[in-house]
């Protein structure tokens, strides 16, 4: 499934063998009241934390340096006893989903200080749990199908239709507690947006403290390999001043991929980059991997190739513009998902327009939109 894809790393990160998936949630669902309990739990189990949690200038929960760091200084040492092992690379999507659900259902879970810091069901969104009423707002056959497929997978898991292909049934992992489709959607969204993957051990792991760091595309902070010893180390990738927000790069995310997998729009880029599904040569049947991410080089070719590419992009642009909205307009700030999807549409159109104009300039023609 998509949630097990890696991302494009620097050689240094590849050597460390860690891939990361996180989420930036809406402010209302980002509790910090219980952060002291989480920190105490990590410290009592032998961890080290040289940071604090508060809301950043954009209103999102983030992690901030409590002292100055130089490259490779330890921001946090996360004990193995606090890390939730949610399965292996080879497992189906159901294993991390059911592992997380088991802990959510257990009032005596030893991970409770960590669980209490997870976003609540109304504060997390990705393809696992996006309400189907928003699916047409993608105005993309590929991404709309992605959302509907997750709904089908999770319904099948709930009904037991996929038991022959799954490692565990719901009852084997969760027991006799009642489980609803919404439970599965929530657990799927939590697991698929918050785990780290250890390449050599081939395990999917959820690590506290570290997953409070927000995404910044060119951030150089890293995670240590998690192959031996009892700690996962969150390391500074460059000099960081006391009081600075600590970031982590989730990879070179295109806007549509970030919305589908993490539920947020990355920072605006100048110049804008095409969405994943709008890239030349995009193959919806090939799984995306950050290790083999699309080229960042601008499209170029013969005049005939440039003309064909400009015509293709115009076709996408006009299709988006001519597709009516599936939901009535809503006031800004009333519905986070609606605003995000409309923001994504605006960015797609802007990036398509930019690329069309760029190619028109190479051809020395005027592009009408």
TrEMBL record:
Pfam family, one: SET
UniProt GO MF annotations: protein-lysine N-methyltransferase activity
CDD domains: SET_LSMT
InterPro entries: SET_dom (IPR001214), SET_dom_sf (IPR046341), SETD3_SETD6_MTase (IPR050600)
Superkingdom, taxonomy of origin: Eukaryota
Limits of the SET domain: 45-251
Coiled-coil residue spans: none
SUPFAM superfamilies in UniProt: SET domain
UniProt keywords, alphabetically: Signal
Signal peptide limits: 1-29
Name of protein: SET domain-containing protein
